[in-house]
Amino acid sequence: MDSATRVIAKPETERVAQGIDALTAVLSEYLAPAHIKLVRRAYYYAEQAHDGQLRRSGEPYVTHPLAVAFILAGMRLDHQSLMAALLHDVIEDTGVSRDALAAQFSGTVADLVDGVSKLTQIEFKSRAEAQAENFQKMALAMARDIRVILVKLADRLHNMRTLGMLRPDKRRRIARETLEIYAPIANRLGMHTVRVEFEELGFAALYPMRHKCIEAAVRAARGDRKQWVDNIREAISARLREQRHDAVVIGREKHLYGIYQKMRLKRKSFSEIMDVFAVRIIVDSADNCYQVLGVIHGMYKPVPGKFKDYIAIPKSNGYQSLHTVVVGKHGAPIEVQIRTSEMEEMANNGIAAHWLYKSDERSIQSSQLRARQWVQSLLEMQERAGNSLEFIEHVKVDLFPDEVYVFTPRGEILALPSGATAVDFAYAVHTDVGNHCAACRINRKLAPLSEPLQSGQSIEIITSENAKPKPAWLNFVVTGKARSHIRHFLKHQRQAESELLGQELLDKALRSLGSSYSKIKRRQIRRFLKQTNYASMDAVLEEIGLGNRVAFITARTLLEDTSRDDETSLAGSNPLVIAGTEGLLVNFAKCCYPIPGDHISGHISAGRGLVVHRDNCKNIADFRGNRQKCIALQWAERVEGEFSVEIRIVLQNKRGIFASIANQIHAMEANIEQISTTEQDPTYSAVELLLSVQSRAHLARIMRNIRSTPEVNKVLRVK
Fold first, then answer.
1. Helix/strand/coil (H, E, C) string of 483-532?
2. pTM of the entire predicted model
3. Is 398 a catalytic residue?
């Protein structure tokens, strides 16, 4: 390097040196000298590893890890986290390996660096899948050490602060990912300060015009409203001093993204958003929070229904505070938050406020325990999710919940997302309780499993050994844990049922060729699996049951019987017996609603399995020409369950006639699933009912009973 180059480089070198010295000054406030020495060593190692690398701004690359370390130092993180922050890009961007880091520093630091490195973007088929895959990696890394996500959040925060150097399209992509993934994670971990900055920077990058408009509106409103808030703040401070309360009263301005979200969700203009400014009161103890609340309510009228006690019942991310909305002198509502300094620290820094790894198991803070439980639930969901996109669908539900707080029969409190049902509650208690949930009592009264829960309710789950998750539950559960467990159960149940159905269909096809499944030899199965590249015969049977593979062709391939005519009919062999208990892989067609006693046929539908029709249904006629797909069926001698059937009633328009017919149907032990009416003329109406019946004979008795009603003109089964 010549002398001119050295002169140009010198000021930059001095600035970087001042950077680590400035970091050292911050760390000396809370770290031991030996730990600070390790942090400095990590910095110089990173500086050497990144030598020659520049950021898009033209600065030496090492300024980025240094900035990340500054962010974590502001949270008072331990020396290992700071070392990982300084080294977090070394594995990815330089030739240094994880083992080399472990040898230089420690296995813990190397694991942290490796965990953060593995969260970086890689190429996938789609951006959504890439995002989902990365979130799965994040969940695994967080489970090993929660500090991994804290380093990653600080890394993302500095990248967001320097977003202006990137192309507009890349800027928008990173901003969207930050708003959708990283801001909610920061919120879930209780890190309010980080979340707010993520949202502000992301909002400005993703919607620059909207950000400018709201910023201008806040600036314009700030004059009058801020003076008004300052007056209230000063009045509260004076009253608290009179009452001898040691309190700090702060005027607070709502952040722009929060205002935008409120305007968008509530469809309000900026002028209608009244809580742009608020007051926060910080006191020295939880008892004083309630005493100060009494003072505030004595000064201003509280708005009914707007008081929330997050001290007695903290949010799931550990947030604690009293919230109330009062009406000021000008008639406008103002939000007041009351909390202790420890609660303020927890609200701002969340899990970063106290260190899980410094505590033994008995002294773990409740917020950290909740964070650990959440991370553990992520791992459970990941194990049960079919793919990364399904996993992230489950997780997104849990990231931004408006919560309800309900009680177990023992009086314990459970926090659930708004809209959660008894099934969500059951899975929150234990997976086995959810899987065997049969009914529920809400406040000691029987209630539907689909009823949304309200805060303060007491929930009791009634379980049964024979009960199992139902597909309909997916229509109303809201928690990711419940959804993933239900899907996992149904997927395995469907797999078992499809294998059983596939074996029956294959056996039927083999019998038509003069053999049976029990007669198939192992060498035939081995040869078949080698030819078709299936891993096992169970996989073949599952494909047949799902309708993705034709049983007759499979049977012929197994037997290597090419001498038989292709037109050999499955219908000529013994019909397949339907008992009504086959489960998800036997479906009854809604075009003709077959019931026990009807003559039936079926066809294989890809993904749905066997679809049963009445013999005279015009839709089955389309399959009769396809001998490989059309299957002869018959009902078992004893059929269990209830079956839907549609009937049409023509009757006179008379008050109370519908109630009378409904009572008759109920008396005949049948249920009405659906009802629709059309008026034929002023005298007569046609009523179409979808009933649940046990058999054709049961339906005949119901129809005879309805015909006996004088006002009924005609009753017939819809074809």
1. HHHHHHHHHHHHHHHHHHHHHHHHHHHHHHCCCCHHHCCHHHHHHHHHHH
2. 0.53
3. no
